[in-house]
Amino acid sequence: MDYIETQSERTDLPLVVVPTMFEAMYQPLASSLKLLHDVARVRLYRDFNISDDAIIERCREADTVMVIGFHVNGSLLDQLADHVRCFVFGGTGVTNFIDLKRTRELGIRVCNTVHYGDETVAEYTFALILELARSVGAMDRDIRAGGWAGREGFALKDKTLGIIGFGGIGQSVARIADGFGMHTLVWNSHVNAATARSLGSTPVDSIAELMDHSDVVSLHLPLNAETARLITASDLEHLKPGSLFINTARAELIESGALVNRLKRGDVKAALDVFDKEPLPTDDPLRSISNAILTPHVAWRADDAYADMSRQVARSILAFYNGECFNVVD
After folding, report:
1. Do 293 and 134 meet the contact criterion of CB atoms below 8 Å apart?
2. List 183, 250, 262, 315, catalytic entry
3. Statement: 3-116+302-321 belongs to CATH 3.40.50.720
4. Residue 171: which pLDDT band, with cuts at 50, 70 and 90?
5. DSSP letter string over 151-205?
6. Disulfide engineering: 302 pairs with which of 43, 120, 162, 278, CB 3.0-4.6 Å?
7. How far apart (Å, rounded) are the C-alpha atoms in residues 11 and 41?
8. How far apart are CA 108 and CA 306, in angstroms?
9. What is the pLDDT of residue 1?
10. Are 252 and 223 in contact (CB under 8 A)?
């Protein structure tokens, strides 16, 4: 795949490489690179889902690398560490994409992007909730197959939405829920009660308590050492029969295998945008569970989110070469 390189004649400038990207990201990213004029050359490749060997080859001259859609695992890092001085991650949850312990040891800066998709992910969360509640996509498929029976619905007004994680995305979800006339419960390890109440939400003391009293449960925690596998099989036992479970955050927040086992009982529905292994393996048991809707980690993918992410990526790179800090991961 051919690449596009800004200021290609300026071989005196450091090289930034974007080795892979979604095609929809190209225009907003290219527009944001004006910030780096006379600061760095930027080489952009416009394909996606490439091998580690291709990543290494494309980044062999890079001083800075944008990480989007691939993992900087130990092997890949070993082969980039002798020349890459900065990784800029196109997302917030960097810990499961880049080995931060190793990058710290090697003195490589890591930056991420923050709050770029709060509204986008919140809107997608409700797209999933509405699909579970009203089966619009399923009825479209029914009609195209010759059917006309329709399906029963699940009204959202006066139902209770439990939000686990109350940062930017969780708060955006609460605002949308208020528009639907829903009640909201929130759990976070350090939730600000005043902030919750200002959004019409009620804090609860435990995840189990939240699930006991919720008709819909949605996850919006970041993935880190404190939250990995935080939600246990015991917690999921507290999901009420008939309730809906949404995860647009990270699959690794849940005890391994616990959600599959809970869904197999068939008394709750789920909509999942994130998985322990991505792409989802063809033999993953989730593929055969009829009471789950599966989408390929796309909640954040929308025009406004791409534009905000691209601006933050460019600002992080500019700050790095100016000896400043912007969105540096501690």
Report:
1. no
2. 250
3. yes
4. very high
5. ------TT-EEEEE--SHHHHHHHHHHHHTT-EEEEE-TT--HHHHHHTTEEE-S
6. 120
7. 8
8. 25
9. 55
10. yes
- CA atoms of 261 and 150, how far apart (whole Å): 29
pLDDT at 245: 99
Instruction: For residues 89 and 113, give the distance between their C-alpha atoms in angstroms, rounded to a whole number.
Output: 7
| Alpha-carbon gap, residue 104 to 92, rounded angstroms | 18
What would the pLDDT profile of 195-250 be if each residue is shown by its tens digit? 999 999 999 999 999 999 999 999 999 998 899 999 999 999 999 999 999 999 99
User: In the 3-class helix/strand/coil scheme, how is 130-142 assigned residue by residue?
Assistant: HHHHHCHHHHHHH
Q: Which residues contact 197 (CB under 8 A, 6 or more apart)?
A: none
Mean pLDDT, the chain, as a whole number? 96
Residue 107 and residue 81: Cα distance in Å, rounded?
9
- How high is the pLDDT of residue 193? 86
Whether the predicted pLDDT of 31 surpasses 80: yes
Annotated catalytic residue 311: no
Residue appearing with tokens 């959600």: 259
| CATH 3.40.50.720 residue window(s) in the chain | 3-116+302-321, 118-294
Range list of H helices, the chain: 26-32, 52-58, 74-80, 100-106, 118-134, 136-144, 168-179, 193-198, 207-212, 233-236, 258-263, 303-321
Contact in structure between 185 and 160 (CB atoms under 8 Å): yes
Active site residue 297: yes
Please identify which of the residues 57, 61, 237, 278 carries the catalytic annotation. 278
Question: Tens of pLDDT along 106-140?
Answer: 999 999 999 999 999 999 999 999 999 999 999 99
CATH 3.40.50.720 fits 118-294, yes or no: yes
Question: Mean pLDDT throughout 159-170?
Answer: 97
Q: Are strands 269-272 and 183-187 parallel, antiparallel or unpaired?
A: unpaired
User: Out of 85, 134, 297, 311, which one is annotated catalytic?
Assistant: 297
Three-state secondary-structure class, residue 308? helix
